[in-house]
Amino acid sequence: MRLLNEATPTTFRKAAAPQSPWKLPLTFCSAALVSLASIGGVAQTLSHPVALRTTFDDLNLTELAGVPRNALDPVFKDMTVGTGNTLRVLNGETLAIENAVVLLGNIVAASPPIAMDDASGAEFVARGDGVLTRVNLPGFVQNWSVSLRRGSCGADGLGSSPALHLRRFATDGFKSAYPHDLVYVGTRYSEACGASNTTQNRVYAVDATTGAAIWAFNETFSVSMDVVAGVVVDGARETQVLRDGTTSTHWMHGDTLFVTSERRASVSQHSVWAIDVLTSQLRWSANYGRVNAPPALSPLNADRFYVATRAGELKALRKSDGAELWSLDTPVPFLRAMVVSPTGPDQRIALIDVPGRIWMARDNGVSGEWLWQVEVPIGSVPLGTITIPAVAGVGTPVIDRSGNLYVGATNGTIYQLDKDTGAIEASRTADPDPSALVQEMTLHSTDAGVTVVLVSATSAGQVAKHDIPFCQPGACLDDDSDNDGVFNLDDNCPLVPNANQEDADGDGVGDSCDADVDGDGVDNDTDACPASVLGQPVNAGGCTIAQLVPCEGPLGSNTTWRNHRAYVSAVRDAATHFYRSGLISRIQLKAYVDEAQASSCGI
Asked: What burial letters (b/e) apply to 512-549, b meaning 16+ CB within 10 Å?
């Protein structure tokens, strides 16, 4: 392990003055800011976002009432987006790019922006070149980088999002052992350097202030550890009674680090690990099959955490010894996507499987059960049924503090699902490109949790902010009133079936229910020319000059023009009538006649 003295070019971009609260012209790396009708805010276009983080989305720093405990919030209300090797700051209100830092290696994952024990702010970035980097906030400059590669093996990388162990939420034992916060990260070593990447991997603890590597689990490769899928610090909610009699509930870190890893070397290889962070020694490990999703703590049951396996199993494991408390099986494997509900009354766990369906489980504290399974955007399907992929390859779902579940799909859309039934309650457009994958979602707040929004990032680079919930319970259960497959919130004719959503005049009202399809100001039932070119002047009957005097021949006849002069004369008469009716100017009249004379009509 070695600290790197990387020359890190830091760029600063100042946004143009806003034209309105929600629409801002911006140029940065040829990225344009666009406004989407279904987004309760703004959208920003960036190249290949891989990590979307805010100070609000970290469970460790969130009150049960929804108010973040993060002391950094008053000075850092923005969000960060990792794209390639660049970490950018977006304004939390407008999504305008405010700052950026360029790293020497591509970003694999990042922690949320966090207030550190030393009163500074920081974000920790795991890189594909095996380097862990601290970026200081809010100044947004690189503070330190440490290489966690095996010697000079340039192909080694990091395989998990960094996990923070904060002293102010730690035990007395941790505070005695370490003067600063710690950051944990697992490796994704490469076999390009001659060693097996399926057995030789490590978990590191790094001093968050200095960047020094404090310890490495499996430093001598004494145990067979495959690529690390995820790490999470032991924790439980702790409630304190304040002097005024009110209670304050926050997350309290323990002294165990839970780790999941893949299991490709042999069927007997262990894949779930519990490491004592005070000694770096193994508390226990177990073989629960191949795991390529991070573990998830239960906010409501302090004795357990959850693991989703490639074999299609969801397991609740006891923290103290790794014993299986219960297990639910499916016929298909799970992706790297699992989220737990932050509030009760019972623990919900949502997962995405390989065929692209959402599964919802419930843990009542004694046993677990599957509640429902749904394919997005088709609808509910029987458990175990193989269906067409719709969310395969997308990011982790999000559950807000009211229990609403949000799922991104491969059609650029985010769906709000009923937590009890899986019914699709509403949807929002995350990207106008229907082939875009919704890869990242997180909750965000700029007012200490009073107002919370959902932020999304897609494979096409669209970062957008959405008001939540999309609809209130009981007011959105019939979200496709005309049963045309398009939800009411996105349907330009919510009461008339029109699956194609055609809108000739672009006024937001579909042709199937638009009283003036061509947008010429003349209702369909009195429009003699219902397909007028949008923007062209029309007479009282809804006809343009070109429709009244077609090039093919006189209107209403089957003959052609006698000659070119006859056609030009007819155009002049029609244009003169439009001019006298105040529909066009004298200059436009002349232009119509000149165009007719230059044409080949009647020749």
From this structure: bbbebbbbbebeeeebebbebeeeebbbeebbbbbbbb
